[in-house]
Design brief:
By secondary structure, the chain is an alpha+beta fold. Helices cover about 30% and strands about 15% of the residues. The protein is built from six helices and five strands, in the order ββαβββααααα. It has a five-stranded mixed sheet, with helices on both faces. Bound molecules: FE2/S2 (inorganic) cluster (2 copies). One FE2/S2 (inorganic) cluster binds near residues 70 and 75.
């Protein structure tokens, strides 16, 4: 549904009129009603079409676990899971996700009931400041699913065989998630433990 709104505006011209319009339709604000599930709860928003999924989560739904780093697809801090796939929520509009299932870090686990990937990051010191961590964890959960599903990466050597969980695969697949604190080796240790493999 598209709605329009008007804003009041004033203007001056040659001393004749100090107020040309008390209310004029100088700005159309286009909004759309969108409904999606976030962490299992249906959410319905009447939202400016330009709102990113990241801003919808943080500013409208107050789920601030998902972080805004670069806001243009360079750092991975905003990674969430949509219908089982990891995406940069800063690069997609909320209105594109009508009917989708969105999982954020809050939906993976909570204090006292952590997802095994969250627990592994704690155990292995997979963070320092923690700013990148929600995105790292959402990404890591899906990375293991991608490997299980035999989706190849840039470093997969044999495309005719089942992809393996190796350090090289994990590093390559996590390369879109930047950690300014440089916790990379501990992050790999955490993911490796959850994968249940020795590399
Ligand atoms: S905030 Fe989305 S990729 Fe950096
Ligand atoms: S833990 Fe600080 S940016 Fe990754």
């Amino acid at each position: 549904m598209v709605a329009t709104a008007t804003v009041p505006v004033t203007s001056t011209s040659a001393g004749s009129q100090t107020r040309l319009q008390s209310e004029a339709s100088v700005v159309d604000i286009h909004c759309t009603r969108v409904a999606f599930a976030v962490n299992g709860t249906r959410q319905e928003l009447e939202i400016d079409n330009r709102t990113t999924l990241l801003d919808a989560l943080r500013e409208h739904l107050h789920l601030t676990g998902t972080k805004k780093g670069c806001d243009h697809g360079q750092c991975g801090a905003c990674t969430v899971i949509v219908d089982g796939r990891r995406i940069n929520s800063c690069l997609t509009l909320a209105v594109m996700h009508d009917g989708d299932e969105v999982t954020t870090i809050e939906g993976l686990g909570q204090p006292g009931n952590l997802h095994q990937m969250q627990a592994a990051f704690v155990k292995h010191d997979g963070f320092q400041c923690g700013y990148c961590t929600p995105g790292q964890i959402c990404s890591a959960v899906v990375v293991l699913e991608e490997i299980k599903a035999n989706i190849p990466s840039h470093v997969t050597e044999d495309l005719t065989e089942q992809a393996e969980i190796t350090t090289a695969e994990i590093r390559e697949r996590m390369s879109g998630n930047i950690c300014r604190c440089g916790a990379y080796s501990n992050i790999v240790d955490a993911i490796t433990e959850v994968a249940g493999v020795r590399t």
